[in-house]
Design goal:
Blueprint (H helix, E strand, L loop, with lengths): L16 E4 L9 E4 L14 E3 L6 H42 L1
Antiparallel strand pairs: 1-2, 2-3
The structure holds zinc ion.
The site of zinc ion (ZN) has 9 residues, from loops.
């Protein structure tokens, strides 16, 4: 991730932190927010500023499609791993019963 040239200062007076949005409206779009955000001990301010330009409707559709594909593949891999674990357990039990 390249560093932005100008880092805005949030309402607390700290340099803002660059985050990435994963909302359906702005997938992958980066924004500046309070660096205390996500830190349970400190209360973040409401500073918010987009870093990336808005996504074109086409880019949004493409990105959402890709994200969906990644999710599907991840789920398939998880299922596959579960199946293999089950096979190993069954084979182990069968071997154990034969002895
Ligand atoms: Zn702040």
């Amino acid at each position: 991730m390249e560093m932005p040239e100008v880092i805005p200062i949030c309402y607390c007076g700290n340099p803002a932190k660059l985050n990435m949005s994963w909302s359906n409206d702005n997938p992958g779009r980066r924004f500046f927010g309070c660096k205390k955000f996500g830190n349970g001990f400190q209360k973040p301010c409401r500073f918010f500023s987009w870093f990336d330009p808005p996504l074109t409707p086409h880019a949004r559709v493409v990105l959402l499609g890709l994200m969906k594909k990644v999710k599907t593949l991840e789920n398939a891999r998880k299922r596959e791993r579960r199946t293999w674990c089950l096979v190993v357990v069954i084979v182990t039990v069968l071997l154990f019963l034969k002895l």
